[in-house]
Amino acid sequence: MSTAAEASADLRGLALRAREAGRKLAAIPGRVRDAGLEAIARALEAEREAMLEANAADCRDAQELASRGELGLPLVSRLDLSSGKYERAVESVRSVAAMEDPLWRTQGATEVDDGLRLFKVSVPIGVLGVIFESRPDALVQIAALCLKSGNAVLMKGGSEASRSNRALADLIARATAAVEGLPEGWLTLLETREDVRSMLDQDDAIDLIIPRGSNDFVRYIMDNTKIPVTGHSDGVCHVYVDAAADLDKALQVAVDAKVQDVSTCCTAETLLVHAGVAEAFLGTALGRLAEAEVELRGDPRTCRIAGDGRVGEASEEDWSAEYLDYILAVKVVDGLEEAVDHINRYGSAHTDSIVTEDRAAAVRFLQGVDSASVFVNASTRFADGFRFGLGAEVGISTGRLHSRGPVGLEGLTIYKYLMEGEGHTVGYYEGDPPRPYAHRRLEEEWRA
After folding, report:
1. Could you tell me how far CA 2 lies from the centroid of its own chain?
2. How many CB atoms lie within 10 A of CB 290?
3. Is 177 in a helix, a strand, or coil?
4. Could you tell me the end-to-end alpha-carbon distance of the chain, in angstroms, rounded to an integer?
5. d(CA 9, CA 2)
6. Positions of the chain with pLDDT lower than 50, given as ranges
7. What are the CA-CA distances from residue 262 to residues 53, 83, 265, 293, 373 (Å)?
8. Helix (H) or strand (E) holding 310
9. Residues 34, 146: contact at Cβ < 8 Å?
10. How far is residue 413's CA from residue 398's CA, in Å, rounded to a whole number?
11. What sign for the dihedral angle of Cα 81, 85, 89, 94?
12. Cα separations (Å) of 232 from 125, 153, 229, 394, 406?
């Protein structure tokens, strides 16, 4: 077994190799990166059985842990690549490949003066460190987005998916190694906690950390690195049924937001209902949710409407809980403003939805709720990079800098300025009298 110092030295070498690979990736034509993505998709199709066999072994171990109460069943579900998840992962790779190249796109152009042009162009962030949960399909999505956007990446997945992650990372490395022009070392899989701790020290080699996990874990990452961190911790999402809601729509949205996949960060954890429609809506909705085996925890008014013991009494902690399970907190509110205040107080700035036919109420909700994604008459489960048309996502950001919401290709780029002149010097503009700058906006695209 290697010592912590040896692990740190090994990680240092991997990070520096990723830095070199990232610089090469930035200058590689988009057609070469796309060829790498197609190679990954074909390899995934060709080696499907081997990948699913590795995943099945992880799932068997996870089921054993779940039977002993050491792992929640929803997390076991997230781990399983069968039932179409594997095919959707392949689809996400090709979806990313089909998207417009995000690099070297002109974001702005200025003619500073005759013959002196300034371009603001998109470029990769550089080297990413991504730490993700028990979803091996996330590894495929992250790798595809990083390759398309020209970023090198060091990834660490959950230990419960170790076989799946190892098999998939090896497949991706082999597939892209066969594509002429793609550098080695652009993707590295880390497997130990020591690797993660060492990664946090590489602030001169890693440009951004994207953690996906619990609030305590994300806080640990933020507190123990100088590297910028983006992402989210909890996904405390809400559905609010307004007084002007179509109750049939509300029922569809509320049930889908809770039960379509309870293990995801965009699953609704709290249902808010306007007092004016509470009796009519909850009379049906509570039954439908109970039929879906959702445990219900309500405020006193919800409990009174239920009246049959189907709803337990909610605690203060329930309003800010991310269950990731078949549990839902339910509260009756007296109006839109109370709903917005509740969401902004207890939510996690992830995704929240209003069901209403009143456009003015919808606008007040959209503008008033301080979250990365805010919806009208739509399930919170749409908060996903693939569903947004981003191809895939490396995660959801609830921060306020650079990227917010599902982070796809655009969120993995930054920009730099390119100036092209003809021997221009600053002294020429600061003489006596000084020559004025033109600063004319150009509609011109920068060309390599």
Report:
1. 33
2. 15
3. helix
4. 49
5. 10
6. 1-4, 6-7
7. 25, 16, 8, 12, 18
8. none
9. no
10. 17
11. positive
12. 19, 19, 10, 11, 10
What is the tens place of the pLDDT at every residue in 214-264?
Answer: 677 888 888 899 999 887 667 899 999 999 999 999 999 999 999 998 888
Q: Which two tokens stand for residue 225?
A: 């690195």
At residue 245, the pLDDT reads: 97
- Taking a C-beta distance cutoff of 8 angstroms, is the pair 56, 85 a contact? no
- Following DSSP, what letter does each residue of 49-115 receive, concatenated? HHHHHHHHHHHHHHHHHHHTTSS-HHHHHHH--TTTHHHHHHHHHHHHHTSPP-TT-EEEEEEEETT
Helix (H, G, I), strand (E, B), or coil: what is residue 155? strand
Residue pointed to by tokens 């996906």: 212
User: Cα(198)–Cα(11) distance, rounded to whole angstroms?
Assistant: 7
Query: Could you give the CA distance from residue 247 to residue 241 in angstroms, rounded to a whole number?
Result: 8
Q: Token pair for residue 22?
A: 């990232």
Strand, helix or coil at 121? strand
pTM across the whole model: 0.81
Instruction: Report how far residue 445's alpha carbon sits from residue 181's, in angstroms, rounded to the nearest whole number.
Output: 26
- Give the strand order in the sheet containing 127-131: 187-190, 152-156, 127-131, 208-211
The Cα 388–Cα 391 span in angstroms is: 8
What's the CA gap between 412 and 88, in Å, rounded? 22
CB 246 within 8 A of CB 355: yes
CA distance 37 to 50: 20
Phi and psi for 27 in degrees, rounded to 5? -100, 0
Instruction: Specify the pLDDT at position 300.
Output: 95
Q: What pLDDT is recorded for position 155? A: 94
pLDDT of residue 393: 76
Q: What H or E segment, with its residue span, contains residue 12? A: helix 4-26
Per-residue pLDDT, 235: 87
Phi and psi at 157, nearest 5°, equal -100, 175
How do beta strands 106-113 and 440-441 pair?
antiparallel
Tokens of 329: 């907190």
